[in-house]
Amino acid sequence: MDLLLASASPARRATLRSAGIDPTVAVSAVDEPAVLAAAGQVAPAEAVLLLARAKARDVAAGYPDALVLGCDSMLELGGQVLGKPVDAADAVRRWQEMRGRSAVLHTGHWLIRGETQLGATSSTTVHFAEVSDAEITAYVATGEPLHVAGAFTVDGLGGAFVTGIEGDHHGVVGLSLPLLRELLGRLGLSITDLWNHVS
Known about the structure:
This protein has helices at 10-18, 32-39, 44-60, 88-98, 133-141, 169-173, 177-186; strands spanning 3-5, 24-25, 67-77, 80-82, 102-113, 116-128, 162-166. By secondary structure, the chain is of the alpha/beta class.
């Protein structure tokens, strides 16, 4: 069985591939700010689920027979929600706020198979190192934090600045494999059904 991933995220695709799943990718055309505006005040864990659902439904409309997975991630720091930074200066400011603190990375998952739809959110606590201004400047200059929720990656250069994680590591990368397994099970599928490049 094939999985259609409604996300352009290289990290999500790499996570799936490392788990034996080689997804087809179809990026949604969802207006994320409009989805959130229509929802009004919602908690971060709910916001990412709403966005994951919107992305999955948008893609599934063009592929009615496919197994479609939509995902979205946000970092919650001190009650504030952080998506992707708008520019390098924003990324520097965020890191100055995040260093030495802990935050929660929420990743919403929405799975569609035919008429059946279900979803859930993975929430993982991330502890950040007390990084220096020089380290922040150098990290932001690589461009890596400009393209990801929360302005960091745990599976790339930013991994050196994460001192600990409480919860699912994969959820921080952007796709929780244990949660995907659980959602598939609720659809009567096994994650092993999706293995298509196991050597």
